[in-house]
Design a protein that fits this description.
mainly alpha, five-stranded mixed beta sheet, two-stranded antiparallel ribbon, 58% helix, 6% strand, globular
């Protein structure tokens, strides 16, 4: 009897310990989840604040925040994605945003514009969206690695990764719809991994609407799904839809809306044939040209900063990594150095696949998952100081209303009437893009007002820029309305006489 009672007490103690262990595990899971969610929220706040400082320092230029602003403003006012060409054209003062990039995703911001009519809204929403990508990263890692700590490590690595940071706040160019592809693709991967095809389709379609090559990148998830889940018909259908959408974007949409009937960025690919047809011909007749286009130290550094921090874990999940191929091809073949610079938005179609493949690659290792994930976090942290927050810290003083130059720019912008055609230097034009016609000086066309910053830091030919300013200052067709600290406002004396420059 005593033995039975002792066994019963031992069993009760064991059950109690199991319950306590389960409670501690549940409590630990709750704490970890809250820490990750709080980190994502804090990240959104920090990068929104950094973007706000940059904005109030008057460095959010027409290229590219102003372009996005005008497309959203026009859509909100019944002109679907209509924008003024950056420098105008001899034949038209307006064009569709789809002539530059197939990103109808921008139209979704029109209702938000009705609530908060400011370019800053676009920057804040972008920071929040990219920060939210930490959630599917955390969920995916928790599911496949089996530990809360490892899941948190990958979520923090995602947030610290410089390519993520420069999409949360693209210091050099402002807001881009394609930056939203990062969280959207990550959510799509999560839902596809969960076999939740309806939710996957919703996020996949949203991601595909952010830029012309993103549909085929999302389509590559179909190949991964077919291999990993064994659902070949569904997977191949996803890939076929993505490939078809990208082909339509490049072969139909861009040429249809373009003034030249071809991709406006074809010049960047002249070395390898320019157009899709030209590239195929070049590949057959001079394949070495492709090697020369890709094999540069600058592009090698770009690849190192993207891939090395993840310690090669992505190589263990090569089928999922296929999603990086479209953007790698688009970027590496381009002659534009910005496309292979980590501080621009061109990494947005690469980051989600790289992170997700690294998580699933880590899951294939038999080593301690907490240690492996910590190494990945350390890899991202080692280069995390290459950050837009760091570059923007020096602008705090410029953003203060007490700063004399800030006051001069604010007053100059305030003098420009709402809705009138205006020409402005690039950095100031970003603040006047909520109108139908906005030109980047020195292109003036039918502008009735001109606002200039003599020290606009985005001007490549500073000497030529200053000569053009001197010409318009001396022109009898223009009257100087305001001048202070190198900032000028001029008003046309006579009616506009067609297209032209100063």
């Amino acid at each position: 009897m005593e033995i039975a009672q002792g066994e019963a007490r031992s069993l009760e103690v064991g059950l109690q310990e199991l319950r306590e262990g389960a409670r501690r595990a549940a409590s630990s899971e709750v704490v970890t989840r809250r820490v990750v969610y709080a980190a994502a929220g804090l990240y959104a706040v920090v990068f929104s604040a950094a973007a706000a400082v940059h904005f109030f320092a008057f460095h959010s230029a027409r290229l590219d925040l102003g372009n996005m602003t005008q497309a959203v403003w026009a859509t909100a006012h019944g002109h679907f994605l209509r924008v003024t060409p950056t420098i105008g054209t001899p034949t038209t003062a307006e064009m569709s945003r789809l002539a530059a990039h197939v990103d109808p995703f921008l139209a979704l911001f029109a209702p938000l514009w009705w609530i908060w009519s400011s370019p800053l809204m676009l920057l804040v929403v972008q920071a929040i969206a990219v920060a939210s990508g930490a959630l599917p990263v955390y969920w995916l890692a928790r599911k496949h690695l089996g530990t809360q700590r490892a899941a948190a490590h990958f979520a923090f690595a995602y947030l610290l990764f410089p390519a993520t940071q420069f999409n949360a706040f693209t210091y050099a160019a402002g807001m881009h719809s394609v930056s939203f592809a990062i969280p959207l693709i990550l959510f799509a991967i999560w839902f596809l991994d969960e076999d939740r095809l309806v939710a996957f389709a919703a996020f996949a379609l949203l991601a595909a609407s952010t830029k012309e090559e993103i549909p085929v990148a999302v389509g590559c998830l179909g190949i991964w799904y077919a291999v990993r889940k064994g659902r070949q018909l569904v997977g191949l259908g996803i890939f076929a839809a993505g490939l078809a959408a990208t082909l339509v974007n490049f072969l139909v949409v861009l040429p249809h809306f373009s003034f030249t009937g071809s991709n406006p960025f074809a010049g960047r690919y002249a070395q390898v044939g320019g157009t899709p047809g030209g590239m195929l011909h070049k590949l057959a007749t001079d394949p070495v040209a492709f090697v020369h286009a890709v094999a540069t130290w600058h592009k090698l550094l770009f690849l190192v900063m993207l891939f090395v921090p993840w310690l090669g874990l992505w190589a263990l999940e090569p089928v999922l990594l296929l999603g990086v191929v479209p953007d790698l091809v688009v970027n590496l073949l381009s002659a534009d150095p910005n496309q292979t610079a980590i501080q621009y938005e061109y990494t947005s179609g690469i980051v989600p696949f790289l992170v997700a493949a690294s998580i699933l690659g880590a899951a294939r290792l038999k080593r301690d998952k907490n240690r492996v994930s910590f190494y990945a976090l350390a890899g991202a942290a080692c280069i995390a100081l290459f950050s837009p927050v760091y570059f923007g810290a020096a602008e705090v003083r410029e953003a203060l209303p007490s700063n004399a130059l800030h006051a001069a720019k604010a007053h100059a912008l305030h003098l420009i009437p709402s809705g009138v055609p205006v020409a402005a230097s690039n950095e100031l034009a970003g603040y006047l893009s909520d109108r139908r016609f906005i030109y980047v000086f020195p292109y003036i066309r039918d502008a009735r007002w001109v606002v200039l910053d003599e020290n606009d830091r985005t001007m490549i030919d500073a000497a030529g820029y200053r000569r053009t300013i001197a010409e318009i200052d001396a022109s009898p067709r223009w009257r100087l309305v305001y001048s202070s600290h190198g900032v000028q406002v001029l008003r046309r004396r006579v009616p506009a006489e067609g297209a032209g420059s100063a």
